[in-house]
């Protein structure tokens, strides 16, 4: 009633001002001054914060940059010259198909959170099918100060890079048609359900799993799928007999640098607001990345006697992966510990464990992303500090040993589900159209045979 009275008063005052302007301009100004507060009081206040929205628009662009051109260059520089375009094309093709599928059904499966609309704790619903309920001024229910369109796009960039990371394990030998089909099926059947489990109101999130920006949802998930792909496809022809050194490590360094910068949108953007949490997540990301690059470098220096540039950038990516689940929960010291451990553990996994078991994870998606993601998730349970984020109470910092068990459930559940469903998807695609190119195509190169183009 009070609001309606103020509104009527404002309208009457404005009409009086229009009449007075023909009689005395000074009186009209006084009337307008009285009408302004009433009109302002009657106007609805938008919950959208322009500062938060600006930061999330920036973060979304940064995360998209991680896939194209970041991951495209990072992976493209590490394969042989005859497969550079095919590898870059996989990153670009994945970006396109996942964008469309995310708009149609992916966002709905992952982020329908209402108990009456979500199918269950394992799978979201169909509320956002074709994004139909999303209006221009809709506010995200999961991020109350930004438009839902921005939150949807931000999460889309996560959905894009996760399947694209798998390409590192299947490089040089998968049909492009099979790859595109696999990207779409894996997004819907693996990524979206697991994202729902952790971030969309599912069972792991309800249990209290800590995954700030995707240690399990993104990296363990993608790396596990990469290992399954490597095992199902088998090793590259000529592995161990032919020279398979990278085509252009300068491309890879540029790609890794873009990943490093873009990762600030990945981790600090996961605060979904421009606040102190975003600031600490950014600091933790920078510290852990540098520490991991240094520890990988030292390992290589001691064991192989030379610190390679490929090792430096691989170590940096390992640090980025490991700090991802912890970035919004740990202090700078925790970030340093995570980074130093990630460089050592991921070096051993990517170089020595791979040789020990003999699987052909071509660009170390499993050794860096799965191992780094699992390590980061468990260390989050140990080092999360309630002084940094009240949600995160770790074992070593707050005496909450139960958090380690929850983190283990998060890691184990993601690994088992991803491995089983990925294997099924691959076998079905193999029956339908075949997964692997012929030996003749593989020897001559994917670029000329699959795309009709070559790098000069």
Description:
By secondary structure, this protein is an all-alpha fold. It has two domains: 2-42; 53-450, Ammonium transporter AmtB like domains (Ammonium transporter fold, Orthogonal Bundle), CATH 1.10.3430.10. Helices cover 68% and strands 2% of the residues. It has a two-stranded antiparallel sheet.
Give the proportion of residues in helices.
55-70%
Tell me the fraction of residues in β-strands, as a range: under 5%
Name of the CATH homologous superfamily of the largest domain: Ammonium transporter AmtB like domains
Order of helices and strands: HHHHEEHHHHHHHHHHHHH
- Spatial order of the strands in the main sheet? 1-2
Number of H/I helices: 17
N-to-C span: 75 Å
Quaternary organisation of the protein chains:
single chain
* Rough outline: globular
Name given to the CATH architecture of the largest domain:
Orthogonal Bundle
- How many structural domains does the protein architecture include? 2
What's a quick, concise take on this entry?
This protein has 456 residues and is mostly helical. It is built from 17 helices and 2 strands. It folds into 2 domains: 41 residues; 398 residues, Ammonium transporter fold, CATH 1.10.3430.10.
Keywords, please?
mainly alpha, Ammonium transporter fold, 2 strands, two-stranded antiparallel ribbon, 68% helix, 2% strand, 17 helices, 456 residues, 2 domains
Write the layout of secondary structure elements.
Blueprint (H helix, E strand, L loop, with lengths): L1 H19 L4 H18 L7 H27 L7 H28 L27 E2 L2 E5 H18 L10 H24 L3 H5 L7 H19 L15 H19 L8 H28 L5 H15 L8 H26 L7 H19 L11 H4 L3 H31 L6 H6 L1 H6 L5
Antiparallel strand pairs: 1-2
């Amino acid at each position: 009633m009070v609001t309606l009275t103020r509104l009527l008063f404002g309208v009457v005052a404005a009409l009086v001002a229009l009449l007075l302007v023909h009689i005395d301009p000074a009186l009209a100004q006084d009337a307008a001054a009285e009408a302004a507060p009433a009109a302002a009081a009657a106007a609805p206040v938008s919950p959208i914060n322009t500062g938060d929205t600006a930061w999330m628009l920036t973060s979304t662009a940064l995360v998209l940059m991680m896939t194209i051109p970041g991951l495209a260059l990072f992976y493209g520089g590490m394969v042989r010259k005859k497969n550079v375009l095919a590898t870059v094309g996989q990153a670009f093709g994945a970006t396109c198909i996942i964008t469309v599928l995310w708009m149609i059904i992916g966002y709905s499966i992952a982020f329908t959170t209402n108990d009456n609309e979500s199918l269950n704790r394992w799978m979201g619903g169909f509320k956002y099918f074709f994004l139909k309920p999303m209006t221009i001024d809709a506010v995200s229910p999961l991020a109350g100060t930004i438009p839902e369109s921005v939150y949807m796009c931000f999460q889309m960039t996560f959905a894009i890079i996760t399947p694209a990371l798998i390409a590192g394990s299947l490089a040089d030998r998968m049909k492009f048609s099979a790859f595109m089909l696999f990207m779409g099926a894996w997004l819907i059947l693996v990524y979206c359900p697991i994202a729902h489990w952790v971030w969309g109101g599912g069972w792991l999130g309800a249990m209290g799993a800590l995954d700030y920006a995707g240690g399990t949802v993104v990296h363990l998930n993608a790396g596990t799928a990469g290992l399954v792909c490597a095992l199902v496809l088998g090793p590259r022809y000529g592995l161990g007999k032919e020279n398979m050194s990278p085509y252009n490590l300068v491309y890879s360094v540029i790609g890794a640098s873009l990943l490093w910068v873009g990762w600030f949108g990945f981790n600090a953007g996961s605060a979904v607001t421009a606040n102190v949490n975003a600031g600490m997540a950014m600091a933790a990301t920078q510290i852990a990345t540098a520490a991991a690059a240094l520890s990988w470098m030292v390992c290589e220096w001691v064991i192989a006697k030379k610190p390679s540039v490929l090792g430096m950038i691989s170590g940096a990516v390992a640090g980025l992966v490991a700090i991802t689940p912890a970035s919004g929960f740990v202090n700078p010291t925790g970030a340093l510990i995570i980074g130093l451990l990630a460089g050592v553990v991921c070096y051993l996994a990517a170089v020595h464990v791979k040789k020990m078991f003999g699987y052909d994870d071509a660009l170390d998606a499993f050794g860096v992303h799965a191992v780094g993601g699992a390590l980061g998730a468990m260390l989050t349970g140990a080092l999360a500090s309630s002084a940094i984020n009240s949600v995160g109470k770790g074992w070593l910092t707050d005496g909450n040993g139960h958090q380690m068990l929850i983190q283990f459930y998060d890691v184990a559940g993601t690994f088992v589900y991803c491995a089983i469903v990925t294997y099924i998807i691959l076998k079905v695609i193999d029956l339908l159209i075949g997964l692997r190119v012929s030996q003749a195509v593989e020897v001559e190169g994917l670029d000329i045979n699959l795309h009709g183009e070559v790098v000069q």
